[in-house]
Amino acid sequence: MYVPTNWIGIAATLVAIHTGRVSAQATLTDYLDQARLNSPQLTDYRNQQRIAELEIERIGVDYRKPKISLTGDVLFAPYLFNNRRVFSVSNAPTASAIGYDAGVTNGGLYAALIGADYRLFTERLSAPEIDQQLLARSMADNQVRLSGLDLERQVTANYLSALLVQEQLRYQRELLDRLADQRELVRKLADRGVMRVTDLELLNLEVGRQRYLIADLELQYRQALQTLNATVGSSDTGAVSLLLPRLDTVTVPNSSAFTEAYRLDSLRAANDQALFATRYLPQVSTFANGGVNAVSLNNIQRKVGVSAGLRLSWLLLDGGQRGINRQENEIRRQTAARYADFTQQQQLNYRDTGVRLLARYADNLALLDRQLDDYERVLATYRREFAMGQLGVIEYLNVIRSYADLQQQRNQLTVQRLQTLNELNYWNH
To answer: Which residues form a coiled coil (predicted)?
Structure first.
């Protein structure tokens, strides 16, 4: 019978998880490195950086190097009924001929020219265009930074979610092993008549319940790993054991990646205005050409020459477009400033909330640790009494369940603390 390979991989993974045997250990750093390598967004923004650098190079060539071109023209302007001929080409048609005015066309054009054009005084013209590309590169730099932060935040969150399920699964397995050991002890005591058979049945029911919980957690863990792998762009379906990461608080930098985006938007508005203003600068270029240029084929071999000159272009009036453009860019600058102020306040709020939550988690973890120590001492006493048949199964199960619940709560608090630290670090950038 044919079995799809993806189901074989999933089944093997679940068996590995169930038996506690996993193929490898993985760290948060492993997943972050893979995410940065596979991210199409980061690749896109890095390519934009490179494109901006190439565009700066192209602008420099465009303004500082001459343009050389080769042109050729062959133009016929025929006449009808010229000198009793139905169709003819002439630069001196008779008065009765029908065709373009000879003063316009001279009857034709024959040209083969090589020309050069070179712009003069281009520094003020090219500077805004270069600045535009420098800003584009800076924006791409900041987008790389922002996308990296978003990616790190998401991967870390998914990693911690998977880690939480893994740790819950580990605690459930430990509890199952402990119950299985106690079941063997109860079986022996029941055989000797020290404990009741119903006690053994209660333990069997609890063991069955724990096995169901473990099976459910195995499925949740598999789904959490799939989500994590999808986030980093991995097709790996193997089971791994996630290690608890150590997250340190990120120091707040001098320049925030979030507000930097709006600062660059404001600079771009100023640059757009400077770029628009280049329309009002005089543009001077020099040109030269050489080759054949004639209106008649007669003696065309002697109509070879050269020419050179200057070209001036200067926009004087355009109906006030310059003032309109200035107003548009001022509105853009005001918008960017408003966004920057709002984002900065958001960051301060998130940072303050994060610091308060971390302090609360530290207090709660300390309380849980003290309770777990107390339960460890109680469980040690209960195990001795249980082994001697002095304690019923129900009492023992109640205590061990309470102890397991506390362990789970501590695990959840530990991961929630890391999730909060992950969010705080995100807004600290």
So the answer is: 358-423
Domains assigned to the chain? 5-65+121-281+321-428 (1.20.1600.10)
- What's the Cα-to-Cα distance from 115 to each of 72, 175, 289, 313, rounded to whole Å? 11, 89, 4, 19
Q: Do strands 283-294 and 108-120 pair parallel, antiparallel, or not at all (unpaired)?
A: antiparallel
What DSSP assignment string belongs to 80-119?
EEETTEEEE--SS--TT-BSS-HHHHTTEEEEEEEEEEEE
**Least confident among 209-213, 297-301, 320-324:** 297-301
Residues forming a β-bridge with 82: 85
For the range 175-183, what are the long-range contacts, defined as Cβ-Cβ under 8 Å and sequence gap of 24 or more? 175/210, 175/400, 175/404, 176/207, 176/210, 176/211, 176/214, 178/400, 179/203, 179/206, 179/207, 179/210, 179/400, 180/207, 182/386, 182/396, 183/207
Q: To which residue do tokens 């600290």 refer?
A: 428
Which single residue is written with the structure tokens 């102020």? 341
Please identify which residue in the block is written with the tokens 């608890």. Answer: 244
Strands 24-26 and 85-88: unpaired
> What does the pLDDT look like over 142-195, one tens digit per residue?
999 999 999 999 999 999 999 999 999 998 898 888 888 878 777 777 777 666
110-154 pLDDT, tens digit each? 899 999 999 999 899 999 999 999 999 999 999 999 999 999 999
